Amino acid sequence: MRYQNIEDIGLVNSFKRNMEKIGLSPLILGLFLVLGVSPYLIQDEYILRLMVISLMLGTLAMGFDLSAGYIKVANWGYAALMGLGAYTSALLLMKLGISPWIGTIAGGLAAGLLGLLIGILTLRMDGMFAAILAWFIGLILMALTTSLTGLTRGAMGLNVDLYFNTAWSKPYFYVIFTICVLTFIVLRWVTKSNLGLAFNALGQDVEAARTSGVDPMKYKVINFTISCVIAGLVGGFYAHFIGILTPDVMHTKHTVEILVIAYLGGRGSIWGPLLAAFLLVPTFEYLNFLLEFKYVLYGILLISVMIFYPGGISGFLNYLSDLMTQKRKSKSSKKDSPA
Predict the structure, then answer these.
(1) Average pLDDT, stretch 39-63?
(2) Which of 158, 229, 266, 335 can bridge 314 by disulfide, Cβ–Cβ 3.0-4.6 Å?
């Protein structure tokens, strides 16, 4: 029996180590499990829809954080890349009859390919050049979707078939929940691997990273491309969840929304932006009567976070965790010390 208990403990520890390798600590795994069963506990359709939107924006913010938080490149064309994924999936379905499930993946690949091109053209220089070029390309994409009326119907928009023959939010919740969890696992795995070490080194000091054998161009392009793929995937989901596409989906104001969520959550944390989305989206929905001041409030919030607490929510929670750990160690050392 004693040996059996030792084996059980070994299996539990092995499971924990394997989960942590893919970014799922016991706490995070538990939170995802609670989130996964929540549609069966919440019957309010309005709240479920808010949760779907929170997952969607949280996933976008995690992808944005990979570049902004690790290699210090803020992609100002992020919403346009999401829109590219959305239009790619929608047009493949409408023009060629390709399944929206395949179209969603194709949308991610299209956004990733454009991100790769932007990265190759600009990431040899300062990250600001990549941000500005991505912004200009976003404006060009929005102009093209407005002017190519034969293909996109311009400002009139496209009516896109949904994933399911229902507008109820529960099935859509599980689609974006799957995308979100997979995105989280991939990003946590990437940032904990040698790639993540290279990204961190580049974010801290490019020249020091170069002298350590890190190729700045190579790793910046990899980082930027992964981030763009995530934008395109979520864009594909957006197209078949909302059902209506207009060029406005590519507007810079949507990038600002994603950026605020990412910075509020805490740059370089991955999980912080996801948590911030679940706090920010319902709050702004509750403050819907202030809708015309929405982006003013975003600006005030962003400036406040950057000035007073750059670490964001994740930084604050990590501080509390460290404080509690220190207190426990202090108490245990007092108990162990001789009277």
Answers:
(1) 93
(2) 266
